[in-house]
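Render this sequence as a predicted structure.
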Amino acid sequence: MKTGVSYYGNRIPRHVSEDMEDIAKNHCTFVVHTLSENDLKYYRNTMSQIVELSHQAGLEVYLDPWGVGRVFGGEAFSHFACEHLQARQILSDGSSAPAACFNHPAFGEYMHQWTRAAIETGADVLFWDEPHFIQPVPKNERDLWACRCEACQQKFRQQFGHPLPLKYTEEVHRFRHESVVDFLQELCQLAKSQGLQNALCFLPNQEDEDSEVALWTRLALIDDLDIMGTDPYWWSRKLNVKAYVSKPAQKIAKMATEYGKEGQMWVQNFLITAETEEYVRIAIRTFYEAGIRNIAAWSYWGAGYMSSLCSENPERVWKILGQEYAHLRQISKD
């Protein structure tokens, strides 16, 4: 049984060391550290120290390209998207979006640099977190979409034999999926060639399940992908959590078996409102019942250190997570 939690916001090694010991004591077997663009630029050697401290605490280490290019999940700004205007996604109305394009060579090279830097830290797993094209809000995806940059137009013409249309068609839909797959396939291959594992968190799309299944299936076919999962967060809503998280957990468990991967599910540990802390326990047990044996939480201490994501009672959230992890690890041994 594998149990983990994400960790970010602290780059002071002596304090990180204390937190890693706390994470291990709360029955986690791995930690997911974020490696943002800011970390890559200013904390590169520090991150190697943090990885080593995590290993010393007995934890397996994942690294997450947190908010990199604004195409991965995470509350982090992108210096790349600000500096490389020519590599940004272009929306269907011709406007430039504040996110890098999967198909632009400059961003591809930057991600190779990120991957090589992540490998050099000594981490065990690279965690590709919610890769996605930017989605303007509140526009419908088929009304305003990305990307129509020159790199995308050229690649689309090569694949389909005609210009990239202005309207969102099924070919555009397929092209976007294949662009994400091609992008990740190359990075996964690089990581695996250096002895690391690759984990991928699929962005849920419960409003369009056919599209979700199609993309998840294509990504699951990446040979160098080892771990596949998703994160059905309920945010601040009060709902039937068991019903809400059960279907994606069953889907991941089934697909992981079918494609020879390890299934992973993420439980919400941020923005947990008072009196709903038991949702965390319910979600974790639902994942286990679905056959998932790799469970991770976002994030450490109920996100009590980040005001925009802080749970109302982060200490209680963290306590429940530790209790459930201890319970699962015990019953897995029995």
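Summary. The two ends are 12 Å apart (CA to CA). The chain has a mean pLDDT of 95.
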